[in-house]
């Protein structure tokens, strides 16, 4: 593929220290680009870096010129800065959202419902603004993202396994999952930026394998070199444990147990068709 003709420079990466950031910067450099990273702290990958936050009062003065913008920051921060990015030359936007905009809509947890609403509202605002101002946009919605040792999904399970040597499950853990690696998402974002068919479209990006929640946990055990030891229990008991654990694990919610039995699956067929999306199967290694 002739990258010079399909991705315009300069290239700006917002939220460059997110899970996907270093992977994306590395791929951009490997393809011969010289991306500018914008984030609160410097990325691990060697790149031109501008320190800052999308909520900074002097953001307009800090943003560099950019024709192509990859947004890895929370998408609800993006609508407010679109005019500033356009003023700096943005013609193409590839932004990450999340399938949580669908899966958490009816969550019993009010905070999760609020996140789903915020994601959906931000997506709509991005699409509308870009359409009205001539910016070609692509939205990418990953499922459960992991990056061994760095994420708060799969790696959180790994930390629990290492500490307690057993993983409690609400019910049988039969809900289906499609974990997707951050490195694959970086490759997908770059491929989407190159592909003309992705302009003004949104894609759900799933991992290369669909597994039950219990199998996902078993794979984490195996990735740690341990024999899988899951502990199924009634949903009500799991919920009680989560309430008791909340002071020690702030992210613990009873909704986590409810979702273990739910199928949170999506179809990436359009991404396969438009930019050859081909993520790895789920076999994490810690």
TrEMBL record:
Domain NAD-dependent epimerase/dehydratase: 82-204
Pfam family, one: Epimerase
Protein name listed in UniProt: NAD-dependent epimerase/dehydratase family protein
Stored InterPro entries: ComplexI_NDUFA9_subunit, Epimerase_deHydtase, NAD(P)-bd_dom_sf
Superkingdom assignment: Bacteria
